[in-house]
Amino acid sequence: MKKRIMIFLLTLTMILSLILTGCSSSDEGTSSGAASTEENVDATVDATVEEEPKELVDLTLQLKWLPQSQFMGYYVAQEKGYYEEEGINIEILPGGSDIIPEQQVYNGAADVGVTWVSSLLKYQSQGWELVHVGQPFQKSAMLLVSKADTGIESAEDLAGKKVSNWFGGNEYEILALLESNGLDSEADLELVQQDFTMNQLMNDEVDAASAMTYNEYGLLLEAGYTNEELNVLDMNDEGVAMLQDCLFVSEEWIAENEDLYVRFLRASIKGWADASADPDVAGETVFNVDQSVSKEHQVYMAGEIAKLVVPEGFDPANIGYTDMDAMQQTADLALEYGLLSEEADLSETFVNTSYWEAATK
Question: What's the pTM?
C-alpha cells in the first residue's frame, strides 16, 4: 500500500514538473517574440526618420550682371546639387545696369552679393557695414584693345589717341595705367564713353577700347578679327590690376549666419572647381539658364573665366582665396585715383578670410 502511494506521488510530481516547464518555455517565447517585434517597429521608425528629406534653408545670391559664364561656378553648383547637399535652397538673382549689389545686400533684399572689390571698398568707406568674404577671381580681366595698324603697342602710345571706357567704376585701372606712364587723362588724350559693344573700335570711332578678356575681346574674335590683328594692353602685365569679382555680405547677416555662409561657400567652391575644369560644360549650363547670348559665346567666356579663377600655377584647392597683397594694391590704386577719399580699412572687420578657411578645411 505504501509502495503504491509512493509511486502515485512520484508520478504526480513529474506531471506537475512537466506542466511548469512548459509554461515557463511558453512565457519566454512570448517575451522574446514581443521584444523582437518591438525592435522591428523601432527599426522601421528609425528608417522612416532617416528617409525624410532634409529641410533646406533659403539663401539668395545677388549677381553683378545678367546670367553669364562670369558667374558659372554658382550655376554649376546649383545644377549639380551642391547647395542642396549643404542644406541650402539657393535663389540666384540676376543683376543689371539698374541693380547695385551692395544696395541689395545692405537692404536685406539678398543675403550674399557679387561685386568688384573696388566698388565694395567705396561703399565700405562710406560707412556701409559690408564684409568681403571670398575672392573667386584672382586676376583682373581688364584690357585695352586696339587694332594693330594703329601702332599702339605700349601705354605711352596712347598719347593723342581717343580711348573709351564704360566708366561707372570701371575706369580706375585705365586711369592708373595712364598716370603710371606719365599721361594725363584730360590733357594728353581723349577719354570717351564706351557703349556695351565693340562697334566704336570696329568702326574706327576710337583708337583703343576697354574689353574684358571673357567678353568684349571674344566679341572681336567672333567678328572675324585675329589675335595678330589686335594689340592688347593687359592690366596685370602693366602692374595696375585691381581685383574684380568677390563675395560680400552685411555684418548683421553674417553675425547670425556664419555656418550657413560657410556651407554656401563650400558648395560654391566645388562649383567653381568643376566649372574651371570643364568650361565647355559650364558654358552650356549657363546658356541653358538664360539664352541671352549664343552657346558658343558662353563657352568662350567660360574658358576665359577659368583662367581668372585658376590662373596658371594656381592651386585649384585654393579657389576663393583672398590674396591680401592684391587686395592692398587694389585699395592703394582706388585711393590714388580718386575712388576713395581715405585709406581703406583692410582689417578683419571688412575683409574676413576665416569663412574661406573653414570652408576649405
Answer: 0.84
